Amino acid sequence: MVTKTCIVCGQAFEVHKSRKNKAKYCSYQCYWSNLHNYEYSEERNRKISIANSGANCNFYIDGRSKDSERRDWIKNRGQIKKRSSNLNGSHTYGDWMTLKKQHNFTCLCCGLKEPEIKLTEDHIIPLSKGGSNNIENIQPLCRSCNAKKYTKIIDYSNN
Predict the structure, then answer these.
(1) For site-directed labelling of 119, which of 20, 63, 139, 147 has its Cα 20 to 30 A away?
(2) Is 122 part of any domain?
């Protein structure tokens, strides 16, 4: 056993010799009290203040969005990039939201509206058949209609 001194209360305590370089606290109470008094770096404090301000209230401290729909959209975009290495074109989340507003948040195939259903991006000409990822090649469909369409080329926006 090795005798160490607690960095919080200054009390002497014994630890096994294998922990002599890691042990800093005599108890969990000292550990937690020191943890809550921890001073973050200036960068971390800046991120915390931005996150707590009204301007960026839609984001967590680490930059992730609190909007689950936006997180799903970003995840789906990553899956599309994985599937198609020669991806043509792109669109933003704002483009997708504008397209949904243009179609009144309605599935173009079955006519159901959000929030009853969740609209997904459907490629009119599928990526597997050489379609692009531009917003002109995207139409809002619910998940079941999108799954039924599979790789067929059907443009519901012209109906």
Answers:
(1) 63
(2) yes
Number of helices and strands in the chain (H, E): 5, 4
Mean pLDDT of 120-134: 86
Residue 76 in any domain: the answer is no
Smallest CA-to-CA distance from 151 within 120, 118, 130, 128 is with: 128
Q: Which amino acid is present at 156?
A: Y
pTM of the complete model beyond 0.70: no
Looking at residue 96, its amino acid is: W
Query: 89: phi > 0 → left, psi -120 to 50 → alpha, else beta; which?
Result: left
Query: Residue 132: which domain range?
Result: 84-158
Per the CB < 8 A criterion, the answer to whether 1 and 18 are in contact is: no
Q: What is the largest CA-CA distance in the chain?
A: 81
25: left (phi over 0), alpha (psi -120 to 50) or beta: beta
